[in-house]
Amino acid sequence: MDATNTQPLTPKPKKKPVGPMIFKYMGRHGFLLIPVFLFLILITYLRTLIPLFTQHIVDFVLRYSDQGSRLPVFLFRLVDAGDPKTQLLLAAALMVGVDIVRALAIIARRMTSAVFAERVTFDLRNHLYRKLQNLGYSFHTHSETGDLIQRCTSDVGTYQNFIKDQIVEVARLALLVVISIWQMSKLNGNLMLISLASAPVLLVIASIYSLQVEKQFKIIEDNESKMTTAVQENVSGSRVVKAFANERHEVEKFEVLNRKFTDSDIKLTRKMARFWSGTDIICFVQLCVVSSIGLVMAARGEITLGVFTAFVAYSGNIIWPMRQLGRLVGDFSKAGVAITRLDDILSQKDEYAGEGGSLTPEFTGEIEFDHVAFQFPDSLTHQLEDIDFRIRRGETVAIIGRTGSGKSTLMRLLVRLLDPISGSIRFDGVDSRQIEKHHLRNNVGIILQEPFLFSKTVEENIKIADRNNSSDRVQEVAKIARIHEDIVGFEKGYATLVGERGVTLSGGQKQRVAIARMLLKPKPILIFDDSLSAVDTETDLQIRSALKQEWKQSTVFIITHRITTAKEADRIFVLEKGRIAETGSHDELLAQGGIYKQIWDIQSQLDFQLEGGESDAR
Fold first, then answer.
1. What is the distance between the alpha carbons of residues 340 and 347, in angstroms, rounded to a whole number?
2. Which of 98, 346, 451, 479 could tie 484 with a disulfide, CB 3.0–4.6 Å?
3. Confidence of residue 370 (pLDDT cuts 50, 70, 90)
4. The predicted structure's pLDDT at residue 367
5. Contacts of 548 (CB under 8 A, 6+ apart)
6. What is the rounded distance in angstroms from the CA atom of residue 357 to the CA atom of residue 375?
7. CA proximity to 416, closest of 398, 391, 434
């Protein structure tokens, strides 16, 4: 079985087509595109009528030609009444009316597009957040926080703008070109073909430009991601930076990242400038050619003056949208990079999807490790090997060992943040891989080596474990964790805001708040992953004594470097290079004269020297 359930965030080996991904996440709101495109058809058709009004006025009302009006029959009937002056006023009034209807349709289209985009991105943000919550331990340990934040904010915003404006703009320009060509074909086929002469050239240039800017947008996104990560890490670790007076180094590091981002953005701007200037020249030349040939044809009587004026307008409707194609190609490339980065997250396998575990047995606290081994995918050696022991209900077990011996990995296996590559872990005789993960974790309380507190009040942080508990119960567990006296000493007591990541509390206070949070909801198995290291020995002893009285039926694991913490346990396991080197009670291990005895002698000597130093100071 794989050691982890979710792979880290990495580029996909096979590039997915962007088009299907863009529509994939529209979900149940895709139906809103129907009224959007209906409004768009109406808006575009009404716009292409304006040149026909010009032709009608010049050729029919002002009598510059005897070829009559090219207005659609239903409109011609509305303006074909009275003398020329009346016809002119009617044509002008109808033009204003058409423009008013067009304006109202534009408002309706924009409102519908905005509602559509907001609903899609609302669901997308929720989907992303749920996905991040359900991704496994390996994903989060291999992903950068700043990069994930950027994907969930900047990339979502890029996608939102694209589906709200750019995707509609593509359809609008395509409709405008198609309907304009259709109207031109009815006026003069030869001049229509001349008007389309530059289209193949513009399309080829736009295609080349698209490939270039897509690569550049990816570089820009990566550079921005690295810059965001640097800012996030620096803000989160501001106290460390200050402690080591490392501000200048951090500023210089950010300047390097900022320069890379700026240079990549400037490079994109240069590409865009070359494209816009080149297509501007092509479009201008095309318009001059159409106008010149049109004038010659009008002078020869091949087309009327009204048809010529209409053709100039229609040529603009064709040429300038093709020029805009470059901007839309750039926007599409940017949106494609953004949606690909979002899909990198959304296509990851959920931790709980297909995990196989569905049992929800009752937990009493009996645990068995049966020849368990574990190795990280990117490691050459086993982190744990042949771990074999059995824990009875209500037993307190201490795990001690050198840094890197596998103590924390052992506990992560216990709560299935990781899965063994061989052997099995059983709770009351049931294999952990057959137990539903939520059920397993609801029965195992764990306090990590680095406790995380949210930017909420102290009471809210403790209540995260069970929001239905009363304030009295919160205070009870705070007393057991020996943090109550500290809290009531704050100006606002339990309503004190602890700040982001608990920065307003000391290390020991954070650990005791985390202990109180875990104790709020009784569980048959409790794990202290070196979570008593930041409190003094006396407080450590008080917390463990209170735990024995309050949760005497719970099985307790204590991971520690401190012998004074471990010696009170019923059993002690000494880990060495991923194996259990020694096991027994405190007295038994001292009698063995092994690793545990060495650690005990070293720590006892240090404690003696420290106490002696304090006595001398007095």
1. 10
2. 479
3. very high
4. 92
5. 396
6. 22
7. 434
Comparing CA positions, the residue from 472, 543, 58 lying closest to residue 305 is 58
**d(C-alpha 224, C-alpha 262), whole Å:** 9
Give the contacts of 348 (CB within 8 A, at least 6 positions apart): 6, 7, 9, 131, 135, 139
- Which parts of 404-560 are beta strand (E)? 422-427, 430-431, 444-447, 525-529, 555-559
Phi/psi for 237 (5° steps) reads: -105, 30
Name, in order, each residue with C-beta under 8 angstroms of 445's C-beta and a sequence gap of 6 or more.
518, 519, 521, 523, 525, 526, 527
How far apart (Å, rounded) are the C-alpha atoms in residues 413 and 488? 37
User: How far, in Å, CA of 282 to CA of 276, rounded?
Assistant: 10
Q: How many Cα atoms sit within 13 Å of 370 on the Cβ side?
A: 12
> Which residues, in sequence order, are CB contacts of 443 under 8 Å at separation 6+?
363, 427, 523, 524, 525
Chain centroid, CA 326 distance in Å: 29
The first and second tokens of residue 320, run together, are 């300038």
Q: What is the DSSP-derived secondary structure letter of residue 30?
A: G
- Tell me which residue has tokens 């501007």: 280
Give me the pLDDT at residue 134, please: 85
**Residues 402-448: tens digit of each pLDDT:** 878 888 888 889 888 888 999 999 999 999 888 888 888 888 888 87
The Cα–Cα gap between 530 and 551 comes to: 19
Distance from the Cα of residue 499 to its chain's centroid: 23
How many whole angstroms separate alpha carbon 523 and alpha carbon 553? 9
